[in-house]
Every structure is written in C-alpha cells, then in structure tokens.
C-alpha cells in the first residue's frame, strides 16, 4: 500500500450554484474545443439551476457529466470547481476574464487545443490573501489539476525568444541621437534654472529650440502672452518643477485656463501638493495632440517609459517631456526617431511578435540588472527578423560573435495572449511574523497565484501562456508552474510560456519524472528559477528555456541571502549554508539540460548540487517506491548538459560543488534540510548509473558558453566531468575545478578561452582613496570597458585549483598585462596593473594541487612575452593573491611541451624546497620549470600537533635534506599535503613553537601519484624516549603485528628493495622509511594505481609526547639520485607559432542565420535654420526704454548674451536686450532718443547669471545686441 498522498480529486466546495444534469453527446477532443457538440452556454440561464447565471461572489461547481462553454464575461466569483467527468471550455470570444480565488480542475479545462490554438485574448485573474478563507489543503489563489483531471491551454503561436543579431548601443553612445538635450548645459545653459514654477519649452517642427521660459508664482499675464505668441505648429513642452504655488490664487486659475482652454490640458487642475508631478506636451493649434502626465504625492510611478512624447515620423523627430524629476535635468529632449524608437536586428524570424508586446533584452555585461524591458511598436519597414521598440536603451547589449564566442544578448518575449495573473494587494499587508518579515524584505505583496499539477492527472499541456505575479513567498510549494509529486508524467509538458515578475520560482518539477519543460521564458523571479526540488527527479527534459533576473528569496536556505539566514536562524549561525541561488537548480544528474540560456542573476546560472537522501516529501515516497536509493545521486552520469549558455551572474555561470543537507545525517552538523554544506560532493559517476559498485565512467558537459560572470565562468568540482567543445570568455576566472575526494578529476577539452573580447560592456570609473603626507587623495580612472569589481584583479582562462584538472586541445587568446594609469605610480608607490594569463592558479586556494594535474596540446593566438602571458603566478603583494597552502604549493605539468617547449616539465613555485640546479626560473611567469617528478605526501593524525585544534597553526615543518635551510611549512587548514620530489629525502618536524604543541600518538602517512619507478625517503622526528613503535600498512606491503623489516642504517634503508623496511635512529629519535609503489597508475584521474595508495600508520606506544623538541639541526646525507637529469632550457616563446580556434569551442556556425557586424547607430540630422544668420554685434549700453523691447524672459541662473541673441533671432527680432543680469527682451528697432541714449559702454555692470564673464545690463540699463537677422 502506497503512503497516503494528498489527492485533491476528493475535494468538493460548498455549492451555491449547481449545474442541472442534462443528457449530452460525447465531447470532441480533436480540433477546436469550442466547436464540440453538446456544450451548454454559460450565458444561457437554462444551463443553471433555477435559471440563475452565476453572480458575484458565488462558488461554482460544474457537476460530473456537464460540459459548459464559457461564452460570456462571467461574474467575479469566489471559486470554480470542475468536478470529475465535467468539462469547462473557454469560448472563442475575445477578452473574457475569469476572476476567482481558485480554479479546481477535477474534470477537464480547455482553452484552445494543440491543433487549434486560441488566438484571442483571455485572462484568468487569481485573487486572495494568504489568510483567505477560500483554501484547499492550505492552498490559496491557485489553479489545481487533480487526479484524473485534464488541463489544456494553448495560446497563440509566438516565438518565445531569440537573440540579437546586432549590437545595441546605449543612448549615451549615440552622438547623433539628440536634436535637443536639456541636460546638456554647454549647449543649453538655461538647464541650470531650478526655480519653482512651470518650465516651458518651445521647439520648431524640426526639433530645434524656438524658445524657453520659466513662470513662477504668482502667475501674471506674461504666461498667457507667452503662449499666445507661439505660432501654430510649434511643439510646446511643460514641466512643473516643485511647487506651482497656492491653488486658491487667481494667478493659478489663470494658469489652468491657459493650459485647458488654449492647449487642451485636463489634468492641471488636479495638482495640489508641492510633490505632485505634472507635465504636458502638445502641438500648438492641435488640442488633440496633447499628452499629459500627473502623479500625486506618494503615488508610485508605474514601470515603463519616463517621458510623454509627440512623434513626427515624417520629419523623423520625437519630442519628449519627462514624467518626473527622476530624470534629473533632462526634463525636455528631442531625439531622432531612429534613436527614440530603435530598430532591433534579431537572429531569427519571429512569429507572432506585434504592436504592444513586451520584450526583455538580457544584459551582456557583469551586471545582470542591465537587462531592459521594452514594448514593441508598429514598424512598417521591418522584416520578419526586425522589430522596433518604444524607447532607447540605457545600457549596451552585445549582438555579435567575438573571437568565436557567441555573446549575443537574448531577447525574450514576455507577452502572450492568454494571461494568468495574481492580483496583488497594495500596500503590502501583514498579520503575522512571516508576513511582516516579507513586507520588510521586499516592500510589496509577494503572495501571487500558482498552478499545481497533481499526481494521477490525465493530461497537462500548457503552452503560449503568460504568467504574471505568480508564486508565493509566504509558503513553500506554490509556484507559477508546478508538477507536484506526480511520480511519472510522460506526455505532460509546459511549452513556450512566459513567467515574469514571479514571487517564487518559475517552473518546478517536484518528485516527478519524465516532464518536459521546453522553450519557456523566466524573467525576474524570487528564488531558484527552473527547480528540481527533491534530488530524486529524473529523465526530465529542460530544452531551449531562457532564464534571467534571478533574485534571492526566503523559502530555502540555498536561495536566501546569508544576512537573511542569520535572521531566520538566530540560535545558530547557518549563514555559510545559504546564498547559492541558481536560475537552473539541478539536484539530480539524470536529466536532459540542453539549449538553455541562463542570462543573468544574483547567484549562479546552473548549479549541480545533490543530496545524499531524497528531500522533503520524496523521502517517504522513495522509501516505498525504492526508485532512488540513498546516496545514489552521486553515481549517476549527467544524462545531457548540451549547448547551454550562462552569463552575467554575480557568482558563477556553471557551478558544480557542495551538498544539500538532508537534515537527517550525523555528518551534516545540524544543518537544516536544504541548507548547502560546503564540502566535497563525492560525485563519482558509474555504470550502471547510480550503482556505487559499477564501473567508474566519465560524463560530459558539451558546448557550454560562459562569459562575464562575476566570479568564475565555470566552477566544476565534480568527478570525472569532461567539459568539451566549450567557449569561455570575459571573466576574472574562466574555468576552475578539482576532484570530489575520490579517484576523479575534471577535464576541459577542445575549448577556447578568450580573456577580453570586443564585448566591452558599459564604460566604468574606478576610484581609489590614497593617504598621502598632504592628506587623502581620491584617484579616478575612466575605463572604456566594465570590470568585475576591482581592476587590479588578475584575470585568467584556466585557474588551476586543487585538481586534477586536465586541459587539453584548447586555444587561448587576448590575455595580456594592462598598465592602465602610469600617472598614479608616484602617489601609490606602485604601477597600476591588471595581469592577464591564459593559465594561472587559484589566487586564494587552501588546497595543494594534485600531482596528476597537467595540460597538453594548448595553442595560443599570441606569443608569450613580458606583456602577454601564457602562464602567470602572482604573490601576496598583488590584489586578490594570498599565500595560502594551495597557492604556496601550486604547480602544473606541461605534458607535451606546448606551454614551455619541453615535454614533461613541472611548472612549480620557485622555492628551493621544490627546485634544483636543473630548473629554470621564468620571471614573467614567476614560476620555476623543473625536470623532476613529484608526488604528494599527506600526514594525518588524531592528537597532538595533528589534532583538529592545531590544524591551521602550521603544526608541521618539512625540510628536504639537500636544502635544509629552506623548509616548507603549511598552515594545514584543509589538508596537510606536501609536493615532494621523487628520488629525494625529507625530514618531517613537528613545530614546537605553536601553543599546545605535542607529539601525536598516531601518525598516518599517505602518498598519491606514486609510480613504480618513484622513491622518496622520509624521516619523522619523534620523542627521544620513544622505543615501542607499532607500524601498520596495507600498501605497498601488508604490515601487521610488528612484522615490518627493521634495518640498522640509512644506507641499508636506501638499499632495500622489498619496500617494507624501516630505520629507527634511536640516538636522534627519527623514524625513516621510503615511499614507493609496486604499480603504475592506469588513467589520469587515479591518485593511486587502482586505489593502491601508499599508506603507513605509525603508533607511538611509549615516550613523553609532551616533551617537544626540534630535529631541524640534525643533518643526514641526502638520498642519492643516480639518474641523469637534463637541465630545462628557457621557455620557447612560441614553440609552434600561434594557433587557431578553428573547430574548437561551442559555436556551431551552420546554425548562425544572421549577424550584422556594424553596431546600431543613427544618422545625424543637419540643422538648416541658421544658414543665413549674420554675425552678432554689440551695439552698446543704453538707458532702458521699455517701449522698444517685448517678450521679457528671466533666468536666475542661466542667462547669457549668446542665448538672448539666439532667442530673439529665432522669434524674428533684429535686436536683443539684456537687463539686470537675468532678463532678455526682444525688439525690432533701437531709436537713439534722449531717453535711450548710448552710454558708451558705461552703466551696464551686471554679470550675466549664466556666465559671470559677460555683462547683461543693469538696473534701468540695457545691453543691446544684433541677433544676426538679415
């Protein structure tokens, strides 16, 4: 008997309205469902009991056997339940809206069909609060599809998403975009006018400035005269800056009258508060052209355009007035229509995209919030792969292939003709602790609607639907689209839907196998986006989906911020177990993830992370079903991860690491269920899949494209994962990874790495504060590209970490050293620099590198030089580099010589502990090149200096016998591992200077990477009075019960061939032995041959462990290496010349349909208005005669002689006059009367308010200029 699961099919609501049972013919399942015979009309009173059509607030039950056609607008209902055997069909009627608290489908619900798409507009609105009384099993505000039920929703066919085929420039980078820009104070100094009142601008029909004025309260007749003087056809813009004064005054009424009666405005009378906003634009003489915007104080500005506008498509001019002061000084502007309404080149022909549809264009920079939403407008000259949108862009959006990397921005269609929408409350409401917390964190209602498909449903097909304000933060399990504990759903799917502004995820597959999630768009959502919930879901297909705008939520620790976790778990700090948000949250490898684009968010693009047990409700279900065994997830190969893209994430593009806590296992340290444990995942794929005893196999990630992710583009710390034919570019770290704690590694093959592409992102400014003798100095540098944080940060293609990582058959280009501002050098005391390198090392690693780490067959698009590095290692003097255990012991093997020109060279830290006379130091790389082989020795124990309390206190010091003055110590925070030269000898000393130092009673020595020809002699310093030593080993010789061979000297030990001899120098208290192996490794990822790792356990059965000492001054002859070792020559800068990316990387050129290489730009419009203008002349200073000059204009902050002359010229006046520094007037003649005599330049002594180097008259004095009118 299966465990009891929630079956909503048994639920029946209180019936306020009943359907009368009628005989009916069979329902036609093919074709258009509204044409089926026997459908009863909703609008027919005879359909309903007692002849009453459902009314507002009714609860409706469509009884079994009834088939109802929704043919009219229904009332606002509490809920609708379609009983088992009943059918509700949406009629072929435009703009119907079903407004309910929930819709329970136990029978069938149809809107269109797969072979008859519904092409009209349809709306389902789900309303209600988290405390609504209308609930089913604690579910509210939902559409549910129960056991035995069918849901068929098929919206109009529309292309879900595509990519740009041409780069979009931001408005700021279009030099010919503006014909007038009010914020350009050099061209328009009156932008400095900040007076309260009505700011009015007048433009000519071609967009050039005609006049500008500011009218402050009290409003005199000047405002009416000014408006009356404007010729018909001119475009007038008005913007209310701060207060318009007291509405009760007659002057305010005069303002209203002019705007209403002369200009056709209607909203001005609503303005009351100083903080109300009002703007208007109109064409003089055409009241029908008037557009206004009004917003009360405190009212939220709706999303969308920031300007009202009048567009003249014939002249190619767009006039704009700001809706609010949020645009700063840019209250008024005129743009060319090509700039105001950009035409986008798309990579594909798009179907169904039309006027009024909304799209989102993804960021192609490090900042995902550069994504922008626009509305499509009608475009008569667009092809099927072009669209025109309603406003210019604030950010660049790359639309090209650069250095063979496809970095084209995704363009997702948000609009669909069928809309399922959660109706939200405003303002945010709260009645309990959780709701108050949500209001505090998000500042809005986050209780949206949800669609839930339950186990045993007959069919679920949802396509072409827009889901808006869906999902619920208040409670888990309420998601926009959700297969809930269905177990098996082969044949059910979600296709080509748009989920945006979601409050909890986009698509969830929970306890369900064989679901299809195809070509959906997921934008701006809280929590993980595409979500495999319980680490049991298998054989699901996520194909061709777009996800972007992933924001942190609160439902799980993984998709919550660390700060929020501290608040949510006050008794214990679990913050380290939080903040691993992902657009694609992949908790089981056995799923198909292909052709998707993760296009930006606050966390990761794709995160592979598994649990050791099934999670949440699946735990008990799987105990019964037995399909998913405990600890089996780690042993499944990735079924498919193919042709996926990840960019613009604050963390990683693709991330594979860590474990999900089950909340049930002892080694999880009390971390609650669904917390993230920062430990090795132990991922180890096998054949048969899931079988821990199966054959270890490699699994693939193929054709991955990752770029401009803030941390790593790819972080793959998995087991035997081969990333192949992939493209990685434009990130601080391209690819890094390592083992999962088993004999596994990570491989990168046939891929290309580009340091910096033509996708520069948004220009950035870097500022650095510096303390100098004369005080603090702020240095600033302008970059023509964006950076992921600090520009001092080294950027790399491959960052070698713990390893082993095998990089093969791959190409690197555009990695170079950038000295970006030498003028800072004297102040800083160092030269500002960004180091770039094709191959480098993890800058803050605590894991020493595995000795099996190597690269081979690497090619480069540049030759290695002082400023272009194939490889580079920094030091702690450089930004972001730290001298930790891993960075101190970093190395790589150049297997075929493609890096150094010499095959088999070890590239290792330039420390005498590692190097020898045959090594060569390469200064540009800061690494030594050595001909030796190295193995890895690890020392473990349970007490003394090997106990946990001293693990990060440098408990051990190791010396090589031939260079004893150059010891090597490790902090030991994570691993106590030393890279050791074979055919050498070492002395291990316990550090007696650390607090609490003590000899351990048990010492375990392991060695990795040892081959049959290798040998390393090791001595361990012990207490002088220790005489009873028990030695045990499993390999290379089985040692038990003191059956090891004891020799009497180092010479005897060195001569031993049986590999089980030990020499205890009791005089000096040192135990010697040799590390070696009988076998060779048979594959790259083996740490040891078939698991046969050198292992010796040493037990000290007596001696004073607390009597610490050092053996640092005791000298022994070094192990004699009788082999001849050639000296490594200096590297060959380009041993094979530069390479080619041909055939490498993720791009498939045969699938690229269209690329426009020239960036989008707009042509300049020539202004012909001033071609006949003459030179402006200063006629002198006169006594002011008010009869000769008219049209006074006052600028308190912006008056200049140039502006006044231009203003009067544009109005057709021959003369301009300036008085009291701020007032401009115009006249047709200047008569030299006694009253207006020439003062020979004397008396005009007021500086112009917009230019204090000019004079603009005085009191009763006027500077007169000619305007240039012929």
TrEMBL record:
Residues 1-30 form the signal peptide. Its main location: membrane. InterPro entries: CEMIP/CEMIP2, CEMIP_beta-hel_dom, CEMIP_X, G8_domain, Pectin_lyase_fold/virulence, WSC_carb-bd. The lineage of its organism: Eukaryota, Metazoa, Spiralia, Lophotrochozoa, Mollusca. PROSITE patterns: G8, PROKAR_LIPOPROTEIN, WSC. SUPFAM superfamilies: Pectin lyase-like (SSF51126). This is G8 domain-containing protein. GO terms for molecular function: hydrolase activity, acting on glycosyl bonds. The keyword Flavoprotein does not apply. Keywords: Cell membrane, Glycoprotein, Glycosidase, Hydrolase, Membrane, Signal. Belongs to the CEMIP family. One of its GO terms (cellular component) is plasma membrane. SMART domains: G8 (SM01225), WSC (SM00321). Residues 1175-1268 form the WSC domain. It is found in: Cell membrane. Residues 46-166 form the G8 domain.
């Amino acid at each position: 008997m299966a465990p009891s699961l929630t079956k909503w099919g048994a639920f029946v609501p209180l019936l306020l309205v009943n359907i009368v049972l009628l005989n009916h013919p069979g329902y036609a399942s093919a074709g258009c469902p509204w044409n089926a015979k026997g459908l009863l009309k909703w609008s027919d009173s005879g359909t309903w009991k007692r002849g009453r059509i459902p009314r507002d607030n009714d609860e409706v039950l469509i009884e079994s056997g009834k088939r109802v056609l929704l043919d009219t607008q229904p009332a606002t209902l509490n809920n609708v339940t379609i009983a088992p055997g009943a059918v509700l069909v949406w009629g072929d009627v435009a703009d119907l809206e079903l407004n309910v608290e929930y819709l329970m489908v136990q029978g069938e619900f149809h809107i269109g069909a797969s072979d008859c798409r519904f092409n009209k507009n349809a709306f389902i609105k789900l309303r209600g609060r988290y405390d609504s009384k209308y609930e089913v099993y604690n579910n509210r505000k939902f559409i549910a599809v129960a056991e035995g039920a069918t849901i068929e929703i098929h919206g109009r066919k529309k292309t879900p998403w595509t990519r740009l085929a041409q780069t979009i420039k931001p408005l700021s980078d279009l030099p010919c975009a503006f014909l007038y820009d009010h914020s350009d104070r050099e061209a328009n100094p009156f932008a400095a006018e900040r007076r309260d009142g009505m700011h009015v601008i007048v433009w000519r029909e071609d967009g050039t400035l005609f006049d500008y004025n500011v009218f402050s309260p009290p409003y005199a007749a000047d405002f009416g005269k000014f408006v009356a003087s404007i010729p018909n056809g001119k475009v007038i813009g008005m913007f209310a800056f701060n207060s318009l004064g007291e509405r009760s005054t007659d002057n305010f009424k005069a303002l209203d009258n002019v705007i209403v009666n002369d200009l056709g405005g209607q909203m001005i009378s609503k303005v009351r508060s100083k903080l109300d906003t009002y703007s208007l634009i109109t064409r003089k003489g055409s009241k029908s052209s008037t557009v206004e915007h009004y917003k009360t104080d405190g009212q939220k500005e709706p999303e969308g355009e920031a300007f009202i506008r009048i567009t003249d498509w014939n002249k190619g001019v767009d006039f704009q007035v700001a809706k609010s002061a949020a645009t700063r000084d840019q209250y008024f502007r005129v743009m060319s229509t090509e700039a105001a309404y950009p035409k986008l080149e798309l990579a594909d022909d798009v179907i169904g995209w039309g006027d009024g549809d909304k799209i989102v264009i993804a960021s192609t920079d490090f900042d995902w919030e550069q994504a922008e939403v626009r509305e499509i407008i009608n475009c008569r000259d667009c092809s099927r792969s072009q669209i025109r949108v309603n406003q210019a862009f604030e950010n660049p959006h790359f639309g090209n292939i650069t250095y063979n990397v496809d970095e084209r921005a995704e363009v997702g269609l948000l609009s669909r003709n069928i809309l399922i929408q959660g109706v939200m409350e405003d303002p945010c409401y709260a009645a309990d602790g959780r709701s108050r917390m949500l209001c505090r964190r998000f500042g809005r209602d986050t209780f949206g609607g949800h669609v839930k498909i339950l186990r045993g449903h007959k069919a679920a097909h949802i396509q072409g639907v827009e889901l808006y304000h869906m999902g619920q933060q208040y409670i888990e399990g309420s998601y926009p689209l959700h297969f809930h504990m269905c177990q098996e759903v082969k044949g059910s799917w979600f296709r080509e839907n748009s989920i945006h502004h979601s409050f909890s995820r986009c698509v969830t597959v929970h306890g369900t196998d064989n679901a299809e999630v195809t070509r959906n768009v997921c934008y701006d959502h809280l929590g993980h986006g595409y979500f495999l919930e319980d680490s049991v879901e298998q054989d699901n297909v996520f194909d061709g989906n777009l996800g972007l705008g992933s924001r942190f939520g609160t439902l799980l620790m993984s998709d919550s911020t660390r700060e929020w976790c501290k608040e949510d778990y006050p008794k214990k700090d679990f913050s380290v177990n939080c903040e691993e948000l992902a657009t694609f949250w992949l908790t089981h490898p056995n799923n198909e993830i292909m052709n998707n684009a993760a296009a930006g968010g606050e966390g990761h693009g794709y995160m592979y992370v598994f649990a050791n047990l099934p999670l949440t409700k699946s735990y008990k279900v799987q105990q019964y079903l037995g399909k998913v065994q405990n600890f089996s997830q780690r042993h499944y190969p990735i079924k498919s991860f193919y042709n996926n893209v990840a960019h613009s994430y604050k963390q990683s593009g693709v991330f594979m690491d860590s474990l999900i806590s089950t909340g049930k296992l002892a080694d999880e340290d009390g971390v609650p269920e669904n917390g993230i444990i920062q430990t090795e995942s132990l991922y180890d794929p096998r054949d048969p899949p899931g079988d821990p005893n199966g054959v270890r196999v490699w699994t693939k990630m193929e054709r991955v494209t990752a770029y401009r992710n803030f941390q790593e583009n790819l972080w793959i710390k998995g087991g035997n994962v081969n990333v192949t034919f992939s493209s990685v570019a434009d990130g601080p770290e391209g690819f890094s990874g390592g083992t999962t704690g088993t004999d596994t590694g990570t491989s990168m093959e046939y891929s290309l790495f580009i340091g910096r592409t033509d996708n520069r992102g948004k220009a950035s400014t870097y500022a650095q504060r510096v303390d100098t003798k004369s005080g603090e100095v702020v240095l600033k540098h302008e970059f023509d590209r964006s950076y992921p944080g600090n520009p001092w940060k080294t950027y790399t293609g491959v960052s070698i970490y713990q390893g082993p990582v095998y990089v093969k058959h791959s190409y690197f280009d555009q990695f170079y050293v950038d000295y970006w501002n030498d003028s800072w050098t004297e102040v800083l005391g160092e030269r500002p620099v960004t180091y770039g390198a094709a191959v480098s090392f993890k800058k803050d690693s605590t894991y020493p590198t595995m000795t099996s780490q190597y690269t081979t067959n690497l090619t480069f698009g540049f030759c290695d030089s002082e400023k272009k590095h194939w490889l580079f290692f920094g030091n702690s003097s450089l930004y972001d580099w730290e001298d930790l255990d891993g960075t101190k012991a970093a190395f790589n093997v150049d297997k075929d010589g493609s890096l150094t020109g010499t095959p088999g060279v070890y590239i290792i830290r330039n420390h005498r502990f590692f190097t020898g006379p045959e090594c060569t130091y390469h200064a540009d790389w800061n690494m030594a090149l050595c001909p030796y082989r190295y193995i890895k020795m690890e020392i473990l124990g349970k007490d003394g200096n090997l106990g946990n309390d001293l693990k990060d206190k440098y408990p051990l010091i190791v010396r090589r016998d031939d260079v004893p003055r150059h010891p090597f110590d490790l902090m030991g925070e994570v691993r106590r591992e030393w890279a050791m030269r074979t055919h050498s000898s070492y002395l291990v000393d316990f550090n007696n200077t650390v607090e609490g130092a003590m000899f351990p009673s048990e010492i375990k020595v392991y060695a990795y990477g040892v081959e049959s020809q290798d040998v390393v002699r090791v001595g361990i310093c012990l207490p002088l009075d220790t005489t009873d030593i028990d030695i045990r080993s499993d390999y290379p010789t089985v040692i038990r019960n003191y059956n090891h061979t004891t020799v009497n000297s180092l010479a005897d030990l060195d001569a031993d061939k049986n590999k089980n001899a030990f020499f205890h120098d009791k005089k000096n208290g040192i135990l010697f032995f040799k590390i070696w192996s009988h076998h060779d490794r048979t594959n790259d990822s083996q740490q040891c041959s078939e698991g046969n790792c050198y292992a010796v356990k040493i037990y000290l059965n007596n001696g004073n462990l607390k009597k610490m000492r050092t053996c640092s001054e005791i000298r022994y002859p070094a192990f004699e290496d009788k082999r001849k070792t050639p000296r490594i020559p200096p590297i060959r800068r380009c041993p094979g010349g530069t390479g080619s990316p041909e055939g490498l990387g993720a791009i498939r050129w045969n699938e690229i349909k269209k690329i426009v290489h020239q960036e989008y730009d707009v042509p300049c419009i020539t202004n012909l208005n001033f071609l006949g203008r003459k030179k402006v002349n200063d006629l002198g200073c006169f006594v002011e005669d008010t009869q000769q000059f008219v049209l006074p204009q006052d600028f308190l902050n912006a008056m200049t002689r140039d502006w006044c002359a231009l203003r009067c010229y544009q109005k057709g006046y021959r003369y301009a006059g300036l008085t009291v520094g701020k007032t401009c007037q115009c006249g047709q003649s200047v008569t030299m009367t006694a009253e207006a005599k020439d003062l020979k330049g004397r008396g005009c002594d007021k500086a112009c308010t917009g230019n204090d180097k000019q004079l603009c008259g005085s009191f009763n004095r006027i500077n007169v200029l000619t305007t240039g009118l012929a």
